[in-house]
UniProtKB/TrEMBL annotation:
Signal peptide: 1-17
PROSITE patterns to which the protein is assigned, alphabetical: PROKAR_LIPOPROTEIN (PS51257)
Database matches in Gene3D superfamilies: 3.40.1520.20
Provenance organism: Chryseobacterium piscicola
Keywords: Signal
Stretches assigned to the BON domain: 43-88, 103-151
Keyword Membrane assigned: no
Protein name as it appears in the record: Hyperosmotically inducible protein
Pfam short name (any one): BON
Length: 162
């Protein structure tokens, strides 16, 4: 019996000695490892205090935030991860404005008015009715008068006068 107690005490002493010999990872070392986890997200940050990772800042989406938390928990020596990070609000999509679109009937009207000027092209560029080509100064005056008389709205005169 005495021998059994002695063996038990000896086993406990050996186990305590082996536990106390384990090297404790410092917060500075953990901070270095944790910082490399969040470097891919410049708007996020992590701070290690007493082996606990405190995650803050913003992430573009939930999956990238979850991935960072998983990687932080996988670091040997991190006891827990406190998640204080947020997800960026998605940007509202602006509706496409069709007000700048040119009515094909208006475009045809201008083409018909300029049929005597074969070097002038009528096209829609960036949602605006645009006239391109090469004309003389006299032709440019006549074209401007003809288009203005149609009262079709905004027209960009982008032709070259020679």
């Amino acid at each position: 019996m005495k021998k059994t107690i002695t063996m038990a005490v000896l086993a406990m002493a050996v186990s305590f000695a082996s536990v106390s010999c384990k090297k404790k990872v410092s917060d500075a070392d953990l901070q270095t490892q944790a910082t490399t986890v969040v470097t891919s997200t410049p708007t996020a940050a992590v701070e290690i205090k007493e082996g606990v990772a405190h995650l803050s800042g913003t992430f573009p989406d939930q999956s990238s935030k979850d991935a960072a938390i998983t990687q932080l928990k996988a670091i040997k020596g991190v006891k827990d991860v406190h998640d204080m990070a947020k997800i960026e609000a998605p940007m509202a999509t602006m509706p496409v404005e069709n007000a700048s679109m040119v009515d094909p009937a208006v475009q045809q009207k201008v083409k018909d008015a300029l049929k005597d000027f074969p070097t002038v092209n009528v096209e829609v560029v960036n949602g605006e009715l645009t006239l391109t080509g090469n004309v003389s100064s006299a032709q440019a005056r006549k074209i401007k008068e003809s288009v203005d008389a149609l009262k079709v709205g905004k027209v960009k005169f982008n032709y070259t006068v020679k």
